[in-house]
């Protein structure tokens, strides 16, 4: 079998036969993107090598135990008691906890070649769907729960082991008037693991969804993730993405505001260290009148790490009265760290309010001096300032305990 023209060996097992000939042909016809393409210009895509891969989506009793342990660990770290806890390992979807919430339905559906977008610059979403063969689907209906609060759902996607391609495909559907709080955590991985994830979100009219996505896979692994969002009339979508792990981690986020009055808030925080590369590509697409979006991505980069942010606000003709903001801020914590920030506007309507901003620089020395004047050691003062830049992000998303996780990782990376 070939993928992106690179032959690689796959262990013979029953899973290989589950790929139908059409899907197999589609996979083998995909072309690996290059940095000559706009979507990948500043990234590390040309370092990706599939020749070391020896297996796809391995499921075993040991992997199942890892999944359960990861779910228990991260439920504690997130400081929430979830109604539903779901584990995803490739095509294997396991409900680890099912609460008594009749408005929530957890199921599976088969992936299809027909649903793949086949974008030459973004083939990895196709691979995530096709190699998963079965997609985890979470549907939230409008309901009056006795608890009086939105249902809480945690999804744990476990990346594969050494020399493995692993996938996780998830669909979250919030029906009209429904609301929910969802956390999706990606963990695991090993040497030369390539983890491909795709999450699709649909928020119905007057629906409300808060989504946390957290990437914390092995530091010698690659994750290429996709988050595709659609928000209908008067719907509200709020997201927080935290990128902590991987050697090369990329998330492509596309948010389509398709109904009048739809709103989206897109937040992200990322910590880079050593030779880590963290890449983000965002699209805020306003396709209806009076829609609103606000994006804020914050990063701190130590060692020889590299962050790439490329974002586009697009306001289509007819989407009058729309408001869109896009901000990317990067703190450089060492001489060898690097950040590229490329915001873009594509406006086809006059009656709109849009802006973008980016900043790349070291920790503010005036702030450090102020804390030193209060008797705080200079190194500690810098860490306090960097940590403080992420506190508002996690607090606004309702995950205060993540502050401790971020502070611990900051000590390790810087």
Topology:
Blueprint: E1 2-3, E2 6-7, H1 21-29, E3 55-56, H2 61-78, E4 84-89, E5 92-98, E6 104-110, H3 124-132, E7 134-140, E8 152-159, E9 164-174, E10 179-188, E11 194-203, E12 208-215, E13 222-231, E14 236-243, E15 248-257, E16 263-272, E17 277-286, E18 292-301, E19 306-315, E20 323-332, E21 338-347, E22 353-361, H4 365-373, H5 378-396, H6 402-413
Parallel strand pairs: 3-9, 4-8, 7-9, 8-10, 9-11, 10-12, 11-13, 12-14, 13-15, 14-16, 15-17, 16-18, 17-19, 18-20, 19-21, 20-22
Antiparallel strand pairs: 1-2, 4-5, 6-7
Number of domains: 1
Shape estimate = globular
Largest sheet: 10 strands, mixed
Mean pLDDT: 89
Give me the number of helical elements: 6
Give the uncertain stretches in residue-range form: 11-17
- Rounded to an integer in angstroms, the radius of gyration calculated over CA atoms is 21 Å
Polypeptide structure, described:
The structure is a single chain. The chain has helices spanning 21-29, 61-78, 124-132, 365-373, 378-396, 402-413, and strands at residues 2-3, 6-7, 55-56, 84-89, 92-98, 104-110, 134-140, 152-159, 164-174, 179-188, 194-203, 208-215, 222-231, 236-243, 248-257, 263-272, 277-286, 292-301, 306-315, 323-332, 338-347, 353-361. Helix 4 crosses helix 5 (378-396). Strands 3, 6, 7, 9, 11, 13, 15, 17, 19 and 21 form a 10-stranded mixed sheet that branches. The chain has a 10-stranded mixed sheet with strand order 5-4-8-10-12-14-16-18-20-22. It has one domain. The chain has 6 helices and 22 strands. By secondary structure, it is α/β, with parallel strands linked by helices.
